[in-house]
Amino acid sequence: MSKVIPPKLKLKILARDNYLCRYCGKDGFESFESWCYIDVDHFDPTLPDTEINNENNLATACRFCNSQKGDKGFRTIQEARAFLVQRRIEKFKEFQMRKKEIRG
Ligand SMILES: [Zn+2]
Asked: Cβ neighbours of residue 80 under 8 Å, at least 6 residues apart?
């Protein structure tokens, strides 16, 4: 259910948010890698086509937050942040476990 954001609008939102993920604060200019993966997320992906790309429904998001948030609906950005903080903790545990399993 992803709706295309026109490139010019996307650049406007990235500039508005200073290339900082609105969910976790990751800096899109921290490294070339970060810049490659910073994107703009539809905060509420369920809005009708006429409202989906409203600027107040668009938020700069790092790859982690964008992928973990997916199409889940949140009432507020704070609610989304709380969910993503929890997801990061869970995924970090998984990362440590997999790394240990493979690399020892
Ligand atoms: Zn983020």
From this structure: 23, 43, 69, 72, 74
